Amino acid sequence: MGVARTIGADEAGVVKDTATEAWERMREITHDPQVLGQLQALADEAGIIPGAAKALRFLSTTEPMAMRRLAANLRCDNSYVTTIVDSLEEAGVARREAHATDRRIKVIVLTDAGRTLAGRAQEILGTPPPAFELLSPAETEILRDLMRKLGSAAKPTST
Amino acid sequence: MGVARTIGADEAGVVKDTATEAWERMREITHDPQVLGQLQALADEAGIIPGAAKALRFLSTTEPMAMRRLAANLRCDNSYVTTIVDSLEEAGVARREAHATDRRIKVIVLTDAGRTLAGRAQEILGTPPPAFELLSPAETEILRDLMRKLGSAAKPTST
DNA sequence: TATTGTTATACTCTATAACTATA
DNA sequence: TATAGTTATAGAGTATAACAATA
Q1: Of A17, A75, B67, B122, which has fewest CB within 10 angstroms of its CB?
Q2: Predicted TM-score (pTM) above 0.85
């Protein structure tokens, strides 16, 4: 591996095309177990379940969020959000509050400790891995532009 | 949701740099829930647990693999491989066989049905999403090269 | 003694269905 | 009647510790 060869065929006759290789490598890079490990450590330290640490990402900067909306962000069921927010509340990271006008809705409000924690979670998930330093500024821009292009085809996510 | 905003800065004054944006978008694209969905469907159809479908990827082309090695590939504990191979065996997708020389080791051998299934799993996980058609051949090559560069910093993974 | 795999167990992830309160 | 959240429950993911067989 790592040998730049004439692209398009290999000795087994199996053609691994450029897009496939790019895709496989993208998956490998982004599924970095280290990120999960860091998040796990954060969760352990804070006394929350790992799923709650992931959720913190969406609770970080915005105003209080309805539980239902968190479920949409996490693409999980409402009932799991109950579990997550239970964990956050038990650890003193967040609390439920009633919505001002619609009393069916509960919003999730971070405590001060929660805001700090959320910032760290955001940083863990949002910080590019060290390998990005291998790219020149120009290459980084090219990469970003390619990602924008790939992302622009995002599924319509009806509703 | 779904509102496209000016990218690069948000109302809080936080500037999101190029690498961070590239990274976040990469993660979003590669964590496509549709891939998981397809794999889930395959698992349902074959009567195996979803984790076993992921494992098929590593069992596809190679010769019989020791359970321990599958654990390393999946980065999970041996005990979970027991669960996975139980599932594969119950569904008639694979069977355990004794290693020729070291009788502590059991190797996983795919059945004919298993080989077919493994090919499909490989295809699901290895096929780039439709959005890749948005890239020109030249752009695809650039992307692949960038991924090679990023991947070259991969952790040494001793042993 | 060290290694491979299994068993028992426990915690977490996540969803479905039934339910309560509110709209 | 429809919607937000909760409860009960269950299957799946996953790890740790103790164990058996083999090296």
Answers
A1: A75
A2: no
